[in-house]
Amino acid sequence: MAFFSKSWYRVAPLRPRLHAHVRTYRHVYRGDEWYMVRDNQSGRFHRLSARTHAVLALMDGRRTVEEIWKLCADRMGDAQPSQDDLIGLMGALHNGDLLRAGGLPDFEELDHRARRQSRQELLGKVRNPLALRLPIWDPEPFLRRTYPFVGWLFGPLGALLWLMIVALGAGTALLHLPELRAAASTDLLSRGNLLLMALTYPVIKTLHELGHAYATKRWGGEVHEIGLMFLVFMPVPYVDASAAMAFPSKHRRAIVAAAGILIEVALASLAVLVWSAAAPGLLRDVALNMAVVGGVSTVLFNGNPLLRFDGYHVLSDLAEIPQLGARSNKYLVFLLKRHLCRIPDLESPVTAKGEARWFLIYGLAALVYRLLILWVICFFLIGNFLIFGVLAAVYSAATALVVPAGKALRFALFDAALIGRRLRTFVRIGALGTLAAWLLFFVPVPNASIATGLIWAERQDFGVRSATAGQITDFPYTGPVEVRAGQVLAQLDNPDLKATQILTKAQLAEAQARFDALPQDRRAERSIVQSQIDAGMERLASIDQQLSQLTIRAVRDGLWIPISGDDRVYRLLSRGDILGYLMQPEDLFVISIVPQTQVDRIVRDTQAIELRMPGTGALIPARMTRALPSAVAELPHPAFASVNGGRVLIDPTVSDALVPLQSQFAIELLPDAPLDQVFLGQRVDVKFRHSPQPLAVTLWTKTRQVFLRDLNL
Amino acid sequence: MQKRSFLEKETPRLGPLDFALRRAAGLWSVATRRTRQAGLRQILRHVNRAEGAWGALDQKSDAELHQIAADLRARLARLDRPTKETAGQAFALIREVSARVLGMRPYDVQLLGGYALLQGRLAEMNTGEGKTLTATLPAITAALGGWPVHVISVNDYLVQRDARIMGPLFDWFGLSVGCVISGMEPEDRQAAYACDVTYCTNTEVAFDHLKDRLKRVNLGRGLGRKLQQARTATVQDRPLMPGLCFAIIDEADSILIDEARTPLILSQETDSAVEAEIFSTALDLARGLRDGRDYRIDGASGPVRLTPEGQRRLRAAADRLGGAWRHDEQREDVAARALTALHVMRRGDQYVIRDDKIVIVDESTGRVMPDRFWSDGLHQLVELKEGVDLSPRKDTLAQMSYQRLFRRYLWLSGMTGTAREVAAEIHEVYGLRDVRIPPRRRKRLRHGRARLLPDQARKWQAVAAQVADCTEKGAPVLVGTRSVADSERLSAVLHGGGIAHEVINALDETRESEIVAKAGQRGAATIATNMAGRGTDIALGQGVANLGGLHVIMTERHASGRIDRQLAGRAARQGDPGAFNMVLCLDDVILQDAAMPMLRSIARLALGAGLERAALAMIALAQKTVEARHAAGRRRLFRSEGRQQDQLAFTGESE
User: What does pTM read for this prediction?
Assistant: First the structure.
């Protein structure tokens, strides 16, 4: 931008004047005054600084441009716009049909301009077929007639009502969260529901758009276009609420932008209420659909400020940064040009305090998000519609990556701004690129595979049970401990048994006495008593044995893991109740299931294995003992299956067995440390730590895994 | 058929797609150039056929030939453009008449060249193959058909020379010849342009057209214009020329490419009392700034940039000065311009002082441009710097470029000896397809070994030694220097060595033709700027051919290889022998102009290590860099024009 323009001679003698119908609107952004002028040709708004507006005010059709410029010099001093600025402004205003430069209009030029306009519109459609706009209807008369009926909704009463509905809805949703989630994950994806969804979706979106339209009307704006927009071939209604751009209050602009979301959230809340009250049936299903579409889609898409939907406009209005997205991108480019290319005298897109930070954070966040979405969409498309998907993915990747990259390359290679600093720029880019490549390709980064494991044991008889019923009187160990054979693990007491012993002893003594009293010749009687004595002796022996069993000892060396609970002492046990586990370390192992895509790496290159215990989150090292060379035909345990909360998808066509959908391999692991408080069949997360490798290799492996798994390539 | 109203081509506005297509077409046209050469040969057949139909022309009397000419004229007048047959007849006739009137009978290759021009092509003919005569073939053919013809050359000297030499030929055909050079009055110009064939320079035709355009634009469009014209048609308002009809551009690459970036500004004088004070203050301020600390200059002629330190110093000074100096942008703009005047503009390089006036020297032709002024105060700043009288400030009235001017010709053709590198660009911008005309005789130019010396002083010594060497043997030498200052430096060195020589440069143009006439004599030594480049025909003296002909020494690489080759083309003309070699040094401007300090360092290292060829390659690379940069600048200008027109749409029709 030169201060003096070479074309000034053509402009200087003109006497420009704004057309009579032009209106300007005063806005305040971040403490600065700006003026919005609507461009009658494109419907867009020009944002003029207060300075520029003051210049505009001088264009009365009597002063020449030269005079205006000199007046500016007197009045504004250093703030005087440059000649190029002024010519650019007049050119833009003229193209927007806002300015007459004096003299007769040049009809040829007008014609040329109109042709170019229509050609550009067509080109825009061709260039972006994924976001076609199809105007359908001018809703202004309809809105004007119906506004009296709904206008009150956009006042305090409406706000109150909205708050109540949303509070109730949110509360209900929270109360029924698990049910809601279950219903959403099962019912919504059923085939029959798709039709229902297709019917409710347009209704919700239409109400959404009407929300924008009425909100615009609320503060005097006019809405002249409603139509269909095709976002990735999905028809979505849109409304042209650009009249709201003129509203001086940022809150009003924000409300117009947010009206759609507000309506959808209210609808979703109402739907939740209906859903919770209604009996199963069509009404309930419709309500569920509305709740999900209104709630989820709003939060994920419309409300997400990183996408250029309603949420973005709300954010942009409230932050008082118009064109946040476009200017953020410009700012990032500006930063690159300034710091990477070191181009001096660049004009920063920052026009107010605090904008730089917004631009940087928003620009980067939106960029990362866009790339992420692109990644996901590409995989989705390729995975679902092969040929067409690849084409669509290539198209979106080209527009999102290749075109900007090509532009950047062209700039780097040919742009005049780089003359004299191209070599240095390339050196800098090269250095950065080398650094990035080094980090990506050469610096090893720790990485790991995660799988599900199950605590398991080869032998199943390590439970220590009470052989006799009784009450625990002594329980010396409360936690896992190494014990030797014969060591007392617990002491039980059984008063009944003791009483029976005494009784039996007494009976035995009595029988003995009777036996002794009987003469030798009464053989028959003696033999009866003798048998009674024998039985008594036997009983006593049994009782003695039982009594001895009240002292529970370790039958072998091993790890004693007592049962948990505060009431362990004095607890009453029946016969066969478990007191704890006595096991050798090698008894307990973890069996883990890993998919085919990962097994190779796990077997080949595992530096360390960690088990993450559920609950405590303790990390226990482990080592691999056995990897089965072939894939498992059936899951070793139901807990691995996704239907039971595991990670493995089950082949739904096999009904009587848990056959994994994709090949899975079993790997057995032995913990290196005693497991604390474990239960057989308990799930643990298993982390196989691989030797560190460069990030690029990891990413490549992961991508390949995704392709192998999802695309069956 | 009415061909003589105000005529020119409407140039369409071009969009991005148009530019891309044109670029592709340019590359395609270069790729397919061979096919066009074959098509050209048909004209020889038609010429022979015409001769056959009329019977041997050299046997006919003048009266008979006049009768044939009259028939031909009637036939041509009925055609819009001459057909192959009529062109063949015309060429046959012109060949015979030329032989009779001028004593020059066009060779076959000249017929081929003439036909290429008639087809609206860019004819690429070797230097020294007689382009002047070639141009008369299409000029007469078109003029007989009623087309006003402009034969456009690069300077007044060539215009007058060509018009004088070829005048009798046109006379014979009853065609009037006009000649437009600088300093002519409007009435004389009108008369010259009204002739059937007008010899003129590119500058004159551009400004005359601009003046005409301005008159028309001021009148407005359509009906309004017609009414106005009817009411106030005075001599003053009458256009200078009937229109832009058929142009034959000699040295087309110089005019269409090298001059493309020169803005043509029509201005009027205003008083400059206020500005004088501002400018002298600006110079004072600028003299207080130091290179590197306060400002930096990109390349030898690149833009001046103020550093933050420089801006700070200026601001401090401005607080003292007040007034207009308080405005940051304005102050820095003027200061940067003052710095340009001080450090980028060098006397004897971009300008010379003549009669206490700053006179601009055209970089590519080496000639003074007395009517040309730098804009935006730069001229006044240089005047203040040199302490000459301040010229009045010029206010721009109208502005245009050669790119726009030549695209407006209804029928355009050009010829040059050096088009290879720029053929694609010429087609892209002007729609001229190039065609190579085969040389009549092989060039007998010996390329001597190039030499590279570490600094200027040693370069001039080396050149002087070589000149002495040649003159001793008796061979004439022409030494080309890049600037006026260089020519004087070398002249001083030769004087010191007692070597008799002549100097052609912008300081004294009056003896140019006299010196050129002697430059080919035995033992002559001539120093010349680019003035002795294009179009200069140095005839060899008696016995010089046996001594190896003219020896051309180039002392610096120019901004483009084409200018170098033009200089080399002064030797070995029309089948004579000749020699050419370069003597360069590391101080050469081209190395600074490339704005790549690394190139210079590498060249220095290579030279130090005895790798002279590698160092010379660096200088060649620097030249390529500069060429590419200029080409990019021209392309940018070409593409920005439409954009600028759109932006300035509100100001009405452009000039």
Answer: 0.72
